[in-house]
Q: What sequence folds into this?
């Protein structure tokens, strides 16, 4: 990996540098890798003032550029969010180390043993937008799982990411590992993304975290394997047997608790048998919280027709939108089959759920809806590495290979076959 041409780009040089020292991390003891992650949590707390000042520079620039409220919310750090990031890192540090785990072992023939062991994927490349927490989440998961890492954050988070990367480097230095194991592209030129996607010689797996345009671009142009996902058009189906008093706060939580993220509720499907009772209660509960609604004809009828900006008729593509805001789609459906059919047509296979007291109805929904996370009487907001007990996540995968849902330590490993013989030959 040292025979770079004299006209190699800065991106290629960075990728080669990272990949060139990854064995130092793969060979590091489990305790050493965990200690780096724990130190990173300590660095976040110690450097809080520096990180928040850098983030404020990004927020000021975002305001001048007219960045959308959803992206601004994702960009913003404060003391509470920084503490939550540090706590997640501490949980990652304490998780069992997947590297070296023996998945199976058996004798092939006398004197010859075969085993399958978990190993790091190698070098990860991550492209992300307006999410400074990704810098430390992915760095921690990569280090803990023995992977080297190349980051390319968005230009809107450049100051935040630099401050957070400095914390990563301090943690690596403090435990005898080179800073070059985790490096970031400058985020100065758009061409950097295209250059990164061409580095299949050094990058083993690419993970894009951002909007549909970024994910489509990476899938189309990357020369290495790509994990995609994180686009969430999420649904809840309110069945006739659902408990109104208990289901209502759940729906509010799924939509309102943090509307700018991918696991927030986008469409509420309400069974026709209960639409007249349920929909007015939903709207009355959520209007004071700033929620606006787009509704199909039957839902509008149950609500007495359109009401300006607060309630309007759904357009042709409204049920194919990830709102990332305080907007909720409403549709009336005729039973479970139509609810499942709607989800099959409009879902992005991220997070979808059912509200019901009927166990058989729930069983069918959980079996037939093929999303990365499916729910029975629970908010879609739980689709998250931290909430799932994984410590953090590098992405929420909506594909079927090689990982689905929140991707954490295990998803950043592959395996190798190890054969131990006694000068064995094959007959």
A:
């Amino acid at each position: 990996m040292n025979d770079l041409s004299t006209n190699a780009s800065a991106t290629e040089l960075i990728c080669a540098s990272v990949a060139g020292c990854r064995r130092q991390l793969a060979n590091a003891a489990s305790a050493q890798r965990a200690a780096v992650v724990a130190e990173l949590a300590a660095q976040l707390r110690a450097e809080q003032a520096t990180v928040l000042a850098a983030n404020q520079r990004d927020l000021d620039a975002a305001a001048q550029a007219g960045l959308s409220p959803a992206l601004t919310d994702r960009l913003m750090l404060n003391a509470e969010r920084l503490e939550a990031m540090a706590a997640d890192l501490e949980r990652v540090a304490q998780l069992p180390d997947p590297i070296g785990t023996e998945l199976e072992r058996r004798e092939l023939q006398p004197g010859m043993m075969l085993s399958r062991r978990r190993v790091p994927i190698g070098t990860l490349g991550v492209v992300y937008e307006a999410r400074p927490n990704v810098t430390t989440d992915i760095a921690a998961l990569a280090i803990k799982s023995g992977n080297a890492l190349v980051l390319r954050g968005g230009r809107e988070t450049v100051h935040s990411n630099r401050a957070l990367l400095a914390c990563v480097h301090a943690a690596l230095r403090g435990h005898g590992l080179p800073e070059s194991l985790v490096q970031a592209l400058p985020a100065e030129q758009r061409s950097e993304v295209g250059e990164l996607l061409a580095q299949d010689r050094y990058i083993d797996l690419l993970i894009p975290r951002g909007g549909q345009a970024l994910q489509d671009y990476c899938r189309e142009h990357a020369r290495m394997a790509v994990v995609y996902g994180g686009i969430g058009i999420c649904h809840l189906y309110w069945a006739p047997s659902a408990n109104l008093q208990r289901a209502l706060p759940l729906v509010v939580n799924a939509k309102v608790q943090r509307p700018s993220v991918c696991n927030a509720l986008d469409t509420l499907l309400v069974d026709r048998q209960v639409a007249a009772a349920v929909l007015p209660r939903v709207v009355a509960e959520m209007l004071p919280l700033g929620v606006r609604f787009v509704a199909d004809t039957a839902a509008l009828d149950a609500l007495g027709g359109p009401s300006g900006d607060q309630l309007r008729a759904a357009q042709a593509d409204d049920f194919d939108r990830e709102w990332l805001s305080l907007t909720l789609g409403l549709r009336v459906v005729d039973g479970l089959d139509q609810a499942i059919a709607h989800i099959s047509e409009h879902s992005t296979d991220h997070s979808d759920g059912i509200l019901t007291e009927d166990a058989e109805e729930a069983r069918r929904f959980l079996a037939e809806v093929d999303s990365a996370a499916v729910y029975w009487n629970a908010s879609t907001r739980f689709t998250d590495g931290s909430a799932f007990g994984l410590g953090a996540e590098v992405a929420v995968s909506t594909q079927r290979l090689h990982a689905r849902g929140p991707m954490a330590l295990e998803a950043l490993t592959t395996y190798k076959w190890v054969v131990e013989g006694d000068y064995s030959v094959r007959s």
